[in-house]
Every structure is written in structure tokens, then in C-alpha cells.
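Async update (no meeting this week)

Hi team, since we skipped the sync, here's where things stand on the single-chain job. The sequence we agreed to prioritize is pasted below, unchanged from the tracker. I ran it this morning and attached the output directly underneath so nobody has to dig for it. Comments welcome in thread, and please keep replies under the output.
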Amino acid sequence: MLAQYSNPEERDRIKITSIAFRPNIVIDSEFAYEEDRMQEARIGNTLMRIVGFCSRCKAVANNYDTNDRNPELEPNPTLNKFRKHELGTLFGTYHQVEIIGS
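Output:
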């Protein structure tokens, strides 16, 4: 949707970055939505088990660098095309965290 904004300043003002999703951990993978398939993950002595999916609110349409909101509330309309669910637009997961022995 940024293509309709030809002015570079306007595009920068409303662009969406990963910080808008407020992630604790970002998974860099060649597969889309890899977090959906991960039932457990271990980082050091921390074990995380999936307990649910995150329904995205409109806060992700905010640019936290400029304090502007995307006028079309992107990325929600785009995410709705791929991640629409009866509970809302699902994107991201919640985990239960357990500290385990080394």
C-alpha cells in the first residue's frame, strides 16, 4: 500500500517496521509463519511451549518512530488476506516459559 505514496517523506512517515509488532523474539526463517509450526523452542536453559496465537490489534498500524498511524490501518488489511481467523487476524504466538536445568 505504500506504493500510492510517491513522496518519500510520506512513505517514511507511515512505513511499518517489525517494532510495531512488539516482538520479544523474531524467528528468521526461509518459511513463512514458522512460529505456527513450532510447538517448543529452547534458548539456553529456557524452554518455551506454545499456548496460543496472537490476535493483532490496530496498534501495529502505528509508526513508533514518527508517532503516525497508517491511514489504511496497514498491515491489518494485508494480514487479513492471509491470516484471517474467527478470533481475528492471527500473527505471532504466545508461549509458556520454563527454566530448565542445563
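Quick observations from my side:
The longest helix spans residues 76-83.
The first strand starts at residue 40 and ends at 43.
Reply here if anything looks off.
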